[in-house]
Amino acid sequence: xxxxxxxxxxxxxxxxxxxxxxxxxxxxxxxxxxxxxxxxxxxxxxxxxxxxxxxxxxxxxxxxxxxxxxxxxxxxxxxxxxxxxxxxxxxxxxxxxxxxxxxxxxxxxxxxxxxxxxxxxxxxxxxxxxxxxxxxxxxxxxxxxxxxxxxxxxxxxxxxxxxxxxxxxxxxxxxxxxxxxxxxxxxxxxxxxxxxxxxxxxxxxxxxxxxxxxxxxxxxxxxxxxxxxxxxxxxxx
Length: 237
Hints:
- The chain has helices at 19-27, 36-45, 60-72, 93-101, 115-120, 141-147, 164-175, 199-207, and strands at residues 4-6, 30-33, 52-54, 77-80, 106-108, 129-134, 154-159, 180-185, 193-198, 215-219.
- The protein is α/β, with parallel strands linked by helices and 237 residues long.
- GO terms for molecular function: rRNA (cytosine-2'-O-)-methyltransferase activity.
- Its main location: cytoplasm.
Protein backbone atom coordinates (compact mmCIF):
# COMPACT_ATOMS: atom_id res chain seq x y z
CA UNK A 1 0.00 0.00 0.00
CA UNK A 2 1.33 3.44 -0.92
CA UNK A 3 2.07 5.52 2.16
CA UNK A 4 4.87 7.25 4.04
CA UNK A 5 6.49 5.19 6.79
CA UNK A 6 8.58 6.82 9.52
CA UNK A 7 11.01 4.21 10.80
CA UNK A 8 13.21 4.68 13.89
CA UNK A 9 16.78 3.42 13.65
CA UNK A 10 19.17 2.40 16.46
CA UNK A 11 20.87 5.22 18.37
CA UNK A 12 23.94 3.05 18.85
CA UNK A 13 23.32 -0.64 19.30
CA UNK A 14 22.26 -2.21 16.00
CA UNK A 15 20.29 -4.90 17.87
CA UNK A 16 17.71 -2.24 18.79
CA UNK A 17 16.24 -2.40 15.28
CA UNK A 18 12.78 -3.97 15.48
CA UNK A 19 11.69 -6.90 13.33
CA UNK A 20 8.75 -4.85 12.05
CA UNK A 21 11.07 -2.01 11.00
CA UNK A 22 13.33 -4.41 9.12
CA UNK A 23 10.42 -6.02 7.30
CA UNK A 24 8.93 -2.65 6.40
CA UNK A 25 12.22 -1.40 4.96
CA UNK A 26 12.43 -4.56 2.87
CA UNK A 27 8.93 -3.98 1.50
CA UNK A 28 9.01 -0.31 0.45
CA UNK A 29 9.90 1.04 -2.98
CA UNK A 30 12.15 3.86 -1.76
CA UNK A 31 14.09 4.73 1.41
CA UNK A 32 14.78 8.34 2.32
CA UNK A 33 17.95 8.72 4.39
CA UNK A 34 19.45 11.70 6.20
CA UNK A 35 22.95 10.47 5.24
CA UNK A 36 22.98 7.68 2.68
CA UNK A 37 26.46 6.56 3.77
CA UNK A 38 25.44 6.13 7.42
CA UNK A 39 22.17 4.45 6.50
CA UNK A 40 23.93 2.29 3.94
CA UNK A 41 25.90 0.60 6.71
CA UNK A 42 22.71 -0.18 8.65
CA UNK A 43 20.86 -1.48 5.59
CA UNK A 44 23.79 -3.67 4.59
CA UNK A 45 23.89 -5.14 8.09
CA UNK A 46 20.27 -6.27 7.71
CA UNK A 47 20.65 -7.26 4.05
CA UNK A 48 18.20 -4.60 2.86
CA UNK A 49 18.69 -3.55 -0.75
CA UNK A 50 16.42 -0.71 -1.81
CA UNK A 51 16.89 2.57 -3.71
CA UNK A 52 18.19 5.32 -1.42
CA UNK A 53 17.46 9.03 -1.72
CA UNK A 54 19.10 11.73 0.37
CA UNK A 55 16.59 13.70 2.45
CA UNK A 56 17.95 16.14 5.03
CA UNK A 57 17.33 19.57 6.53
CA UNK A 58 19.10 21.33 3.65
CA UNK A 59 16.96 19.87 0.86
CA UNK A 60 13.68 18.73 2.46
CA UNK A 61 11.76 21.81 1.32
CA UNK A 62 12.74 21.07 -2.28
CA UNK A 63 12.29 17.29 -2.29
CA UNK A 64 9.08 16.85 -0.26
CA UNK A 65 6.71 17.68 -3.12
CA UNK A 66 8.38 15.18 -5.46
CA UNK A 67 8.29 12.49 -2.78
CA UNK A 68 4.60 13.13 -2.11
CA UNK A 69 3.88 12.85 -5.84
CA UNK A 70 5.66 9.50 -5.98
CA UNK A 71 3.53 8.20 -3.11
CA UNK A 72 0.36 9.49 -4.78
CA UNK A 73 1.46 7.62 -7.91
CA UNK A 74 1.50 4.35 -5.98
CA UNK A 75 4.93 4.03 -4.38
CA UNK A 76 5.55 3.27 -0.71
CA UNK A 77 8.31 5.34 0.90
CA UNK A 78 10.18 4.98 4.20
CA UNK A 79 11.97 7.82 5.98
CA UNK A 80 14.85 7.06 8.34
CA UNK A 81 17.28 9.35 10.15
CA UNK A 82 20.91 8.68 11.04
CA UNK A 83 19.79 7.55 14.50
CA UNK A 84 16.53 7.58 16.43
CA UNK A 85 13.02 8.53 15.37
CA UNK A 86 12.62 10.81 12.33
CA UNK A 87 11.36 14.35 13.05
CA UNK A 88 12.63 14.31 16.66
CA UNK A 89 15.44 16.89 16.33
CA UNK A 90 15.93 15.40 12.85
CA UNK A 91 14.37 15.95 9.40
CA UNK A 92 10.83 14.69 8.95
CA UNK A 93 8.31 17.25 10.16
CA UNK A 94 8.12 19.16 6.88
CA UNK A 95 7.62 15.99 4.82
CA UNK A 96 4.96 14.64 7.18
CA UNK A 97 3.13 17.98 7.13
CA UNK A 98 3.21 18.05 3.33
CA UNK A 99 1.96 14.46 3.02
CA UNK A 100 -0.87 15.04 5.51
CA UNK A 101 -1.95 18.11 3.55
CA UNK A 102 -2.01 15.97 0.38
CA UNK A 103 -4.17 13.32 2.04
CA UNK A 104 -1.35 10.76 2.06
CA UNK A 105 -1.41 8.14 4.81
CA UNK A 106 1.48 8.44 7.25
CA UNK A 107 2.50 5.66 9.63
CA UNK A 108 5.16 6.04 12.32
CA UNK A 109 6.61 2.82 13.72
CA UNK A 110 7.65 2.67 17.39
CA UNK A 111 11.32 2.32 18.16
CA UNK A 112 14.53 3.92 19.35
CA UNK A 113 14.77 7.51 20.50
CA UNK A 114 17.42 8.91 22.81
CA UNK A 115 15.40 11.01 25.24
CA UNK A 116 13.12 8.24 26.57
CA UNK A 117 15.81 6.03 28.18
CA UNK A 118 17.64 9.14 29.39
CA UNK A 119 14.49 10.41 31.10
CA UNK A 120 13.50 7.07 32.62
CA UNK A 121 16.92 6.30 34.10
CA UNK A 122 17.54 9.86 35.33
CA UNK A 123 15.72 9.30 38.60
CA UNK A 124 13.86 12.59 38.08
CA UNK A 125 10.06 12.88 37.88
CA UNK A 126 8.80 11.59 34.53
CA UNK A 127 5.04 11.84 34.94
CA UNK A 128 5.18 15.30 33.36
CA UNK A 129 8.04 16.53 31.18
CA UNK A 130 8.85 18.82 28.27
CA UNK A 131 11.21 18.04 25.42
CA UNK A 132 13.24 21.08 24.34
CA UNK A 133 15.70 19.39 21.98
CA UNK A 134 18.67 21.57 21.05
CA UNK A 135 18.67 25.09 22.49
CA UNK A 136 19.44 27.96 20.10
CA UNK A 137 23.23 28.23 19.91
CA UNK A 138 23.40 32.02 19.96
CA UNK A 139 20.43 34.25 19.17
CA UNK A 140 17.52 33.52 21.45
CA UNK A 141 19.42 31.18 23.78
CA UNK A 142 19.25 33.39 26.87
CA UNK A 143 15.64 34.29 26.15
CA UNK A 144 14.80 30.59 26.05
CA UNK A 145 16.52 29.97 29.37
CA UNK A 146 14.62 32.88 30.90
CA UNK A 147 11.40 31.43 29.53
CA UNK A 148 12.13 28.08 31.19
CA UNK A 149 12.98 29.61 34.58
CA UNK A 150 9.46 28.94 35.88
CA UNK A 151 9.05 25.52 34.23
CA UNK A 152 7.99 22.98 36.87
CA UNK A 153 8.10 19.92 34.60
CA UNK A 154 11.25 17.88 34.06
CA UNK A 155 13.08 19.31 31.04
CA UNK A 156 14.97 17.35 28.37
CA UNK A 157 17.69 18.79 26.15
CA UNK A 158 20.01 17.48 23.45
CA UNK A 159 23.56 18.82 23.34
CA UNK A 160 26.85 18.23 21.57
CA UNK A 161 29.82 16.99 23.65
CA UNK A 162 31.99 20.07 23.10
CA UNK A 163 29.23 22.36 24.41
CA UNK A 164 28.17 20.24 27.39
CA UNK A 165 30.11 21.95 30.18
CA UNK A 166 29.23 25.44 28.93
CA UNK A 167 25.56 24.51 28.76
CA UNK A 168 25.62 23.07 32.29
CA UNK A 169 27.23 26.31 33.50
CA UNK A 170 24.51 28.34 31.82
CA UNK A 171 21.89 26.12 33.44
CA UNK A 172 23.52 26.71 36.84
CA UNK A 173 23.35 30.47 36.29
CA UNK A 174 19.73 30.35 35.15
CA UNK A 175 18.30 27.71 37.51
CA UNK A 176 20.76 27.53 40.41
CA UNK A 177 23.73 25.21 40.83
CA UNK A 178 21.84 23.00 43.32
CA UNK A 179 19.21 22.06 40.71
CA UNK A 180 19.32 18.29 40.10
CA UNK A 181 20.08 16.91 36.66
CA UNK A 182 21.22 13.85 34.76
CA UNK A 183 23.55 13.63 31.78
CA UNK A 184 23.39 10.58 29.52
CA UNK A 185 25.91 9.95 26.76
CA UNK A 186 26.69 7.10 24.39
CA UNK A 187 23.29 5.55 25.16
CA UNK A 188 23.01 1.84 24.20
CA UNK A 189 26.72 1.76 23.31
CA UNK A 190 29.64 0.03 25.03
CA UNK A 191 30.74 3.09 26.97
CA UNK A 192 27.29 4.35 28.01
CA UNK A 193 27.37 6.79 30.92
CA UNK A 194 24.55 8.18 33.05
CA UNK A 195 25.82 10.82 35.47
CA UNK A 196 23.42 12.19 38.08
CA UNK A 197 23.73 14.97 40.65
CA UNK A 198 23.40 18.70 41.11
CA UNK A 199 24.44 20.99 38.27
CA UNK A 200 27.52 21.96 40.31
CA UNK A 201 28.51 18.30 40.68
CA UNK A 202 27.97 17.57 37.01
CA UNK A 203 30.01 20.60 35.96
CA UNK A 204 32.91 19.36 38.11
CA UNK A 205 32.57 15.82 36.77
CA UNK A 206 32.57 16.68 33.09
CA UNK A 207 35.14 19.48 33.37
CA UNK A 208 37.72 16.91 34.44
CA UNK A 209 37.38 14.63 31.39
CA UNK A 210 37.15 14.55 27.62
CA UNK A 211 33.50 14.21 26.65
CA UNK A 212 32.48 12.15 23.62
CA UNK A 213 29.22 10.92 22.15
CA UNK A 214 25.71 12.28 21.77
CA UNK A 215 24.38 13.98 24.92
CA UNK A 216 20.96 14.06 26.59
CA UNK A 217 20.51 16.37 29.58
CA UNK A 218 17.54 15.81 31.87
CA UNK A 219 16.93 18.74 34.20
CA UNK A 220 14.71 18.92 37.26
CA UNK A 221 11.86 21.41 37.06
CA UNK A 222 11.31 24.25 39.49
CA UNK A 223 9.80 23.18 42.78
CA UNK A 224 6.38 24.73 43.22
CA UNK A 225 5.57 25.60 46.80
CA UNK A 226 1.89 25.15 47.44
CA UNK A 227 0.35 27.74 49.68
CA UNK A 228 -1.92 26.56 52.43
CA UNK A 229 -5.47 27.68 52.03
CA UNK A 230 -6.63 30.08 54.69
CA UNK A 231 -10.11 29.51 55.96
CA UNK A 232 -11.99 32.42 57.53
CA UNK A 233 -14.32 31.35 60.28
CA UNK A 234 -17.48 33.40 60.11
CA UNK A 235 -19.49 34.08 63.24
CA UNK A 236 -22.88 32.58 63.21
CA UNK A 237 -25.69 35.07 63.23
